[in-house]
Amino acid sequence: MRARLGRRGLLGRGAGVSVLCLAGFPALLRSAQAQPRPLKLLMLGDSITAAYGLAKSDGLPAKLEAALKAKGGAVTVIDAGVSGDTTAGGRSRLEWSLADKPDAVIVALGGNDGLRGIDPRNSEANLRAILEALKARNIPAMIAGMLAPPNLGADYGREFAAVFQTLHRDFPDAVFYPFLLDGVAGEATLNQPDRIHPNPQGVEEMVRRMTPAVEDLLSKARPA
């Protein structure tokens, strides 16, 4: 008799635990659902975003991700930088670069176009095609501007700079960051010996300056 009562008592206690677990499950589920997944930010660029001459951990994508996370942002920055890439190269690989389904994209191309003296009209056409493709997919974009080297002449420099101003005008919903290398270009202490690519300190300065614009971009992103 006592054995039967004991079993019944054990079963009763077990059932009570099960009921409590089940009662708490909806709250746990709501808590899990309330945690948004990290936003995915794609950096479509060239050697500047591909951490040329640096450890990956010192590159722009890694440092930007760390800075955003330090400010409480749930963000994963995807490095889609290819050293030597032009705007034409970025345009040609856009489709597979979007395979990770980013929530927002930083378009950081044009530096190699300027170095090679490519016709600014071609650069504009390529960047326009990229931005139109992102707009068609409802992916928020940031236009990171670039300047041409001064040795190509003042006229070319003006035409090249006008490319990004025109795109800023024609894509008003895109966040505009006028110059990717702002505060770093021409500063010997912030660049590698080639005087083109930022060193780790230069990357830190880039991140410091561009983070507000990136936060503006991410505010437009809507995770699925």
TrEMBL record:
| GO molecular function annotations of the record | phosphatidylcholine lysophospholipase activity
Mind telling me which InterPro entries this protein's record contains? Ester_Hydrolysis_Enzymes (IPR051532), SGNH_hydro (IPR013830), SGNH_hydro_sf (IPR036514), TAT_signal (IPR006311)
Full protein name: Arylesterase
Alphabetized Pfam families for the sequence: Lipase_GDSL_2
Write down the species. Roseomonas indoligenes
SGNH hydrolase-type esterase domain location:
44-202
